[in-house]
Design a protein that fits this description.
The structure holds 2 protein chains of 2 kinds. Chain A is an alpha/beta fold. Helices cover 41% and strands 21% of the residues of chain A. Classes of the chains: A alpha/beta, B mainly alpha.
Chain lengths: 389, 307
Amino acid sequence: MFRQFMGVAAAAALLASPATAEKVKIGFVTTLTTGAGVIGRDMRDAVDLGLDHIGHKMAGLDVEVIYEDDGFKPEIGKQKTEKLVQKDKVNFVAGYIWSHVLLASHKTVVNADTFLISSNAGPSQLAGKLCNENFFSTSWQNDQTPMAMGEVLNQRGIKSLYVMSPNYAAGKNMVAGVERTYRGEIVAKDLTKFPDQLDFSAELAKVRAAKPDALFVFYPGKHGTQFFKQYQQSGLKGNVPLYSVFTVDSMNLPLLKDQAEGSLMTQFWAPDLDTPANKRFVSGYRDKYGRYPSFYAAQSYDTVFLIKSAVEAVNGDLGNRDGMRAAMRKANFESVRGPYKYGNNHFPIQNFYLRHVVKDADGNFTTKILSTVLEDHQDSYAKDCKMSW
Amino acid sequence: MDWILLLEQCLNGLQLGILLFLLAAGLTLVFGIMDLVNLAHGSLYMMGAYFATTFAGWTGSFLLGALLALPAALLLGIVVEVVALRTLYSRDHLDQVLATFGLILFFNELARIVWGPAGLDLSLPAFLETSVELLPGVPYPTYRIAIIVTGLLVAGGMYALVNHTRIGMLIRAGASNRGMVSALGVNIRLLYTLVFGLGTVLAALAGLMAAPILTVQIGMGETILILAFVVIVIGGIGSIRGAFVAAILVGLIDTVGRAFLADFLRLFLTNQVAETAGPAMSSMLIYILMAAVLATRPRGLFPPRGH
C-alpha cells in the first residue's frame, strides 16, 4: 500500500515538475556588508516591494531573486556574478552600486548572452565604447547628474568653483560631468583616496585658502555623512556654499538632519515626483519599511518593472532573447520617474531636477524638487557607442 | 607657498597623529610586552565609538557618554583577554593572527546585530561644534583642538606612568626581558591583563574621539589599524616614545603630503598628470617612510633596550 502510494506520489511529482521548473531567475548583486551595506539593504527592500506589487509573477511565471553581496570589492563582485551566471543560470543579472564593481563584472554577464541591468552604476565606458546589446541601465550615466549641476551653477552666477571627489571610476566621471557644462573657473580639483580616506580636513583647509564662490562634491554613501559633518565643523558652511551630487540620500539624511537642510543637489528622481508609479512606490515603501526610499531604491524598483515588461512581451518565453531585448528598448513600463526613452547605448534619456533638503509635515528630513534643469537629456558617450537599432 | 595654510595642515596632521598614537600605544605595548599580534585592536577602537555613542544617547551628554565608555572598554578588554587571548600567548604569530582576525569578524557581526548596519552618529555639544580663530583669519575647528590637547595630556600621562611608577617599571621590564620579570616573582598574568586593558582603553579613547568627525560604523577600525601597524614598525615595537614620535611623523607626512604633493608636482609636470599622480603618490608616502626606516634602522627609531 505504502509503496503504491509512493509510486503515485513520485509520478505526480514528475508530472508536476515541468510546470514549476520554468520561472524567471534574477540575480541581484549589491553591497550587503561593510558600511555601505545600508545601500544594499535599501535596494533589496525596493526589489522585494516591487515583487509584492506584481504578486511575485511575471507573465504567469514565478519570480525568484537571488541576492549576492559584493563586499564593496570588484574582485568579489566578479566572483559572485560568475556564480550567478554559471551555477544559478539566471535569466537576468541586476543591481551594482559601484562603477568599479560593474566594470569588473559586466563581461562575465554579457558574453554569456545573459541580460545585465545596472540599477545604479553608470560608468562612461559602458555608455560608450563598451556598450552592449545585453546591457541596460535603469539609472543614468555617471556624467549626467553633475552636468545638470554645472548648469545650475551657471544659472546661479557662480564664478569660481572648487571640486572634490573620490579617486575611482565614478568619481572621475562626476568631475568630467561638471567640467563639461560649467562655464566658470575651476580653481582646484582634489581627488581623494577611495574608499579609505574619511577625513577631509586637509582638503577643506585648502578650500578655505582658495576662497571659491562654491564647492562641488561627490561623496556617495557613508562618505557623504562624514563630509557634511566636517564641512560644518570647518566653519566653511555659510562662507562657501555646497553643491553636491549623490552625497545626500534618504539613508544619511536621518543622520545629517539639519546639517543638510537647504542643501542643493541634482537628480533624475525625487520622492515627491508626481507620477502614479512613484506615488505607489513611495507610499508602499514608507508603509512597509517606515522610511523614505532612496534613489538607489527607486532605480531598483524600476529594474523589476523593466524585467517584467520584457518577460510579458514574449509571454514568458525566456528563450526569446531578441523579443525581450526589443521590449526593453521600448521602456514600455510605468517608471517612477515617468515615461522615458532609451538611447542607442541603452541608457535612459530623461529629465534632471534640482532638489533641496526640507523637513516634511512629520519632522522627517526629505528632498523636494525646485526646478527642472535638463529635459530629455542624453549622455555624452552615446555617440561613441557603435550599436544602433 | 601659503604659510597659514601650511600651519593649518600641520595642525590637521598633528590631530591625525594624536589619534594614531592612542591606537598605536596599545598595539605596541601588547605586541612588545605580550608578544601578541592583535589584529582586533581596530575592533576595540570601533567598540569604543559605539559605546560612547550609546552612552551619550542614554545620558544626553557627549562628555558623560565619553567618560562612561572608557570603563566599559576596560571591562571589554579584560573579558577579551581572559576569554580569548590568554590561550594564545604560547602559540606562534600565525595562530594569533588567525584568532584575532576571527575576533574582527565577531565584533563586526556583533555591532551589526546590536546597532544595525546603518551606522550611528555621535553629535558634538554646541560648544565643540564651532571653530576658533587661532590667528586672525584662520579659524580652526574647536573639536580638533580638543583632540590634540586630550591626546597630548594622555601622552604625558603615559610618559609619567611608564617612567615614574612601579607598574611602568614592570611594563618596561616586561618589554625588555619577559622571562626575567616572571622569574623575579612578578605576576605576569595579571600584568598582561592590565596592559591589555590599558591598550583597550586607549584604543577606545581614539575611537570615541574620532567618532564625531567620522561616522560610527562597522569596520571603522580596519583602515586605521594598518596605519597604526606602520606607526609601531617605524617607532620600534614595544616603545611608547617611538610610537609617539612615529605617529606624529606619519600624521604630518600623510596630511601635508595629501595637501601639497599635487601642487608640488604641478611645478614640473602637466596639470593632468599631477592631478592623477598626486593622490596616488601621497598615499604611498608613509610606506616609503616605513621602507626607509626599515632599511636604515631595522628595529625602528626607538627600539626598547635589552632584546
